[in-house]
Structure formats: C-alpha cells, structure tokens
Specification:
mainly alpha, globular
C-alpha cells in the first residue's frame, strides 16, 4: 500500500496546510503547492515544545537532592516528583489523537502549551512536596498532548516526499532531550536554583504559543465528535495506563509482587487493559482507534518503537548509573561523558534520512538495531576503570544505531496507514515508546539489583573457599594498624566488603548491557517481518 495522494494527506477533519486549490482529476500527478514558510515555522514551534515536554521528564534527575531540601521532602517522597509527571502523561498521550480530531491541532496545542507553562510556574513556586506532586501531575497530563501531536502533524501536514525530513527532526528531539536533560538540569541548579528547572519553560513556551498561534493552523476540528464521547472508555483507559505505569515505575524498588500494592495494581492493570481493549473495539466512537493494529506494518512498527524506546532510555539510564555508582562521577562529569551519544545521534540524523529515502526502510531499521545491539554488547566486559574513552565507542555505535532505527521505524509504522487513522495512531506510537522505555528501565533496575546480590554471594564464597580471605584480612589489618585505625580488623573487613561489592556491581552492569544488546539483536530480526514500503518520490529540486 502506498501513501495517500497529497490532497488526502491533511487531517481527516479539515483542509491540509496547502495553498493550492483543489486540482482537477487530470492533474492528479502534478505537485501540490505548499506554503513552506508557514509549514516550517508552525511545525518548528511545535518541535520546540516537544523538546520542552520530553526534556522536563529528565531535567530534574540530577537535582533531586536540592529539590528534596527545598520542599522538605523525605527520600521516599522525592521519587514522586518524577513519577507524578509520568503517570498522568501516559493517559493524555493516546487521548490526544481524539482531542486533535475534535478541536483541531492548533487549538489543542495552544491549550496544552499554555497549561504546561502555568503548571511549570506553579511547580517552580512550590513550597511543599504535596503541592509539587499535584502540579507535576497536572504538568505531565496537560503537556502530554504536545508530544504525539507533533508526530501526527509530520505525517498529515507534510507531503509524502518530505515526511522523512520531518521524521529526522523529531528523531533528533526524542533522542537528544533525554541525553542532555540531566546535564542541563545539574548546571541550571548550580548556576541559579532548582526552581529554574521549571521557570525555564516560560520563555520557550511563550515563543511556542506565538509560533503555533501565527503559523500552526494545519487543520480544523470536528465538533460532532463530542457527541457520544466515551466517558467509560476514558475512565477504564486511565485506570489501566496509570496502574501499569505505577507498577513499572515503582515495582523494582518495592520488590515487585512481594509488595501487596504492586500485586493488586498489576491485577487492576490487566483487568483494566482487557476491558479497555474490548470497549475500544465495540464502541461506535472509540477514544483510541485500535483497528490500526490490523495494519501489519503498524503492528511491527509499534513493537520496534517499544524496543527503540527501551534501548534509548535504557542506555541513557545505565551509563549515568554506572558512572555515579562505580566511578563516583559528578553530574557535570557524567554529562561530559554522555555528550558522545548526543553528538553521534545529531550527526547521524541526515544520514538516516537519506538511507530511509533511498532504500526499503526495513533495511536501515535492521541495520540500526544491529548497530545499537553491537554498541551495547561492546560494554559486556566493562571494568571498574572504564571512563570517557572506554565508553566513547559504545555510545557512538549505540547512538548511530538508535537514530537510524528510530527514523526507519517511524516511516514503516505510519507510511501505509490511511490518513484518517494517523492522529490516533500517533498517540499509540508514542505510548509504545514510553511504555517500552518504562519496561526497559524496570527490567534493568531489577536485573542490576538481583545480579549484584548473586555476584556478591558468589565472590564471597569463592574468596572463603580459596583461603585467600585470611591472607587479605591479615595484610589489610596490618596496613590499618600502621595508619592508626582504632579497629583495624573491622576496617579491613569493611574494605574487603567494599571491593567485593564494587566488583559485583560492575559484573551486574555488564549483564545489563548484554541484555539490552540481545533485545536489539532480536529486534533487528523481527524488523524484517514488516511488509515492503514504497518510498515517496524524491523532493523537487526547487522545494526549500
């Protein structure tokens, strides 16, 4: 199946962002005239806010201790600053497709951006953890509409021959924001205060409001969709997605099903998910159009998007964790080391676009996942001495692979869908990326904890059985005595325990890098199951 003809490429409920009149049937092959200035300025403003919304997930990561002190939160409470943002966001992401068809892209985006700005200011002004959790939840819910709406606009407002370019721009945003977030957050907190992590959204948000209001009129809404709105489906969807997200976010640190709350929420998520799917398949006016999964390429693409999300967020999670726990790097040192990943993704974007244009997107998708897997596997033998240069190759290879795979996946996922399904489908694609990332992080966090304990016990038993423990204890005890330590034997035991713990942690991280690599290799094989995609004709040489 090929892409729809240009006149049908706009949103189903309004005219596309084209300045040309409707063409006669005999001129169907003539190129449509596009107001490129309006299109790129409007889309560019939306891309800025997409970056802002994704960045806000990660920007507070390096400054949680300062925020904790600023609002008087406990260690358990401070984690909710992140969780409160993510849980409501997953509800808005699939809902945004329906709202975009109801109100139109421009109105939805302006409302979402304005609400995001207001909640950012209130979050920055928070004086208690309760106020911050509430405003962060509203910030995530309202701002969640900005991310998938950009994705839908790229495939409805742009003509087929320019969609890959739009995909490259979105791919850069999706990959760079999580990479630079913690580093930018750390520097902002050091230079100003933690409150500026949220106040920084105000000037950029005002710029977005102006740009979208001036140039973002890409389609019109369909008010008739408000009749028969599926409130029951919305409630079930919220219960299902919020329960699932909470389990994925909090399960690892609560020992999963050993915790009664996690167990019951898992049951609620499963029952809610089954009910939600049934409702969307049987209701006359569904919130989410699940029939898109009847399209083979969309189904494969959603699966690959989840894997790319796990690879992107998983790699961004593992490396800072290793550098902080094993090498004891500061936030700025971690950011300097992570810069290689961002630079490699940025440099690969144009190359990825050309590859996807010139060949069947299945090939670059397979190549991209294979490269990302190879990059992850390079770190399977990580040691405690690895730093910037040792991880440079790992990051470069992974960054290049993730970018190529992501651009190709976007093209495969959306290119064979009918235009009227694109808005709803964009929410499902972004939801799969976030869910894949959440599942990846949960599995990696659990793997590190469990494998560290297993390796520690194994190393301890081998040291005892080999008879080397007594000699090491004696040597270290003598050294501690020379240093004037009050309890030399106790200090020696603590030192040996620390060395064993460090080595066990390093080995566990090696296993986690290997798990990510295996997942990418499997994805490389599965990507070939997609149906062939006919590329759009190359853009005219005079189109700028």
């Amino acid at each position: 199946m090929t892409d729809a003809a240009p006149p049908a490429d706009g949103a189903p409920n309004g005219p596309p962002a084209r300045s040309a009149p409707v063409r006669p049937a005999g001129a169907a092959s003539a190129p449509a005239q596009v107001n490129w200035t309006k299109l790129f300025l409007g889309f560019g403003a939306m891309v800025i806010s997409q970056f802002m919304a994704i960045l806000d997930i990660q920007i507070v990561a390096a400054s949680l201790p300062q925020i904790q002190a600023g609002v008087g939160a406990s260690t358990d409470q401070v984690s909710w600053i992140q969780t409160a943002y993510l849980i409501p966001e997953v509800v808005m992401i699939p809902l945004s497709g329906y709202l975009s068809r109801l109100w139109g892209t421009q109105r939805l985006y302006l409302a979402s951006c304005l609400g995001f700005i207001v909640m950012s200011v209130l979050t920055g002004l928070s004086s208690s953890i309760d106020m911050m959790i509430l405003t962060r939840a509203l910030q995530g819910f309202i701002g969640g509409a900005m991310i998938p709406t950009v994705f839908a606009t790229a495939f409805t407002a742009f003509p087929p021959e320019r969609r890959v370019t739009a995909s490259v721009i979105m791919g850069l945003i999706v990959t760079l924001a999580p990479t630079v977030g913690p580093t930018l957050g750390g520097h902002l907190t050091e230079a100003l205060s933690w409150r500026w992590l949220f106040f920084i959204n105000v000037p950029t948000g005002l710029l977005v409001l102006f740009g979208v209001a001036r140039w973002g009129d890409f389609d019109k809404g369909d008010p008739s969709l408000a009749k028969g709105f599926d409130w029951f489906g919305l409630i079930v969807m919220a219960i299902f997605l919020m329960s699932m997200q909470y389990v994925l976010e909090e399960g690892a640190k609560d020992d999963w099903f050993d915790d009664a709350g996690i167990l019951w929420l898992t049951v609620v998520a499963v029952l809610g998910g089954v009910t939600f799917i049934w409702r969307q398949l049987t209701y006359k006016n569904p919130i989410v159009e699940l029939r898109a999964f009847a399209n083979r390429n969309f189904t494969v693409g959603v699966m690959m998007t989840a894997v790319s999300g796990a690879s992107l967020f998983g790699g961004t999670f593992l490396l800072p964790q290793f550098l902080g726990r094993v090498r004891h790097y500061s936030a700025s040192e971690v950011g300097t080391t992570m810069i290689v990943s961002g630079l490699s993704m940025f440099a690969t974007g144009p190359l990825a676009g050309r590859l996807v244009r010139k060949m069947d997107p299945r090939a670059p998708m397979c190549i991209g996942f294979a490269l990302a897997g190879f990059g992850m596997y390079m770190a399977h033998g990580v040691t405690k001495d690895w730093g910037f240069w040792e991880f440079a190759g790992v990051q470069a290879c992974r960054g290049v692979g993730v970018m190529i795979a992501m651009i190709a996946t976007q093209q495969i996922t959306m290119s064979t869908l009918p235009p009227q399904m694109i808005k709803n489908a964009s929410g499902l694609v972004n939801l799969s990326r976030n869910t894949g990332g959440a599942i990846g992080l949960a599995l990696l966090a659990t793997s590190i904890t469990q494998q560290t304990a297993l390796y520690y016990n194994d190393l301890t038993s081998k040291l005892t059985q080999g008879g080397a423990a007594a000699g090491m204890m004696a040597g270290l005890g003598e050294r501690m005595t020379q240093l004037g330590v009050v309890d030399p034997s106790g200090a020696a035991r603590k030192a040996i325990g620390g060395m064993l713990q460090q080595q066990a942690t390093v080995l566990a991280f090696g296993d986690s890098f290997t798990v990510l690599a295996i997942g990418c290799f499997i994805a490389a094989g599965v990507s070939l199951l997609a149906a062939p995609v006919k590329n759009a004709p190359p853009p005219p040489s005079d189109a700028h």
